Amino acid sequence: MVIPSPEQLRQTRTAGDDSFLLVADLMSGCGMRNGEAFAVNLDNIVADDVYHVTEQVNRTTCRYQRLKHRKPGEHHDVPLPARVRQTIEWHAGRHGTLDGYLLRHSGDPTRTFPHYHIANQWQRIKKAGETDVPDGMVVYGLRHFFASNCLPITDVADWMGHRTIEIAFRIYRHLMPGSISKAAKILNLDLAA
């Protein structure tokens, strides 16, 4: 898995259109899957810093549906950084909403946001070569950026909607040695004082 640096993320999130910016912020800032980001709804902001993830856009049926690894009606809450909240509010103010949903099909607002829209933009962004996109990075790398910056792993598993902590650990355990090293350095500094 390839995770962008903060500078690469900054460049990438602004390289596409307004919908790409919103999706990039939701994935990198809240850890949402792309289908969850496509179903972003103003009504799901439940606190200044909490977003209630309740549904996703299914790639095959192009309809709203229950979350992956969740029963109908189940949800998970994720941190909502101020920057992401500002992007949500900016997008809603600029483009409006339909029943609270921010992203809709451009040709028919009664339809859900199409998965191919972000995939096509991603291909154009990489092909243009104007943005420092790491070799091998895919759009899902934005979600991995979130996970790599939000340890401990127990919280990451819950926020990202993983069924069990073991799934999150298997995917992100390579990040943990860096965390151990950081902790050791901090402890060394604190213990030396």
Number of domains: 1
How many beta-strand elements?
A: 5
Strand order of the largest sheet: 1-2-5
Biggest β-sheet: count, sense, barrel?
3 strands, antiparallel
Assigned CATH superfamily: Intergrase catalytic core
Tell me what portion of residues adopts beta-strand conformation.
Answer: 5-15%
Can you tell me the overall shape? globular
Low-confidence stretches: 179-188
Q: What class do helices, strands and sheet pairing give?
A: mainly alpha
- Return the CATH architecture: Orthogonal Bundle
Mean pLDDT: 83
Q: Give the fraction of residues assigned to helices.
A: 40-55%
- What do we call the CATH topology? hpI Integrase, Chain A
CATH class identity: Mainly Alpha
Overall description:
- The chain is mostly helical and 193 residues long.
- It has helices at residues 6-13, 18-30, 34-38, 82-95, 115-128, 141-148, 153-159, 165-172, 176-192, and strands spanning 45-47, 50-53, 56-57, 64-65, 76-79.
- It has 9 helices and 5 strands.
- Helix 2 packs antiparallel against helix 4 and helix 7 (153-159) packs across helix 8 (165-172).
Summarize the SSE layout with pairings.
Layout: H1 6-13, H2 18-30, H3 34-38, E1 45-47, E2 50-53, E3 56-57, E4 64-65, E5 76-79, H4 82-95, H5 115-128, H6 141-148, H7 153-159, H8 165-172, H9 176-192
Antiparallel strand pairs: 1-2, 2-5, 3-4
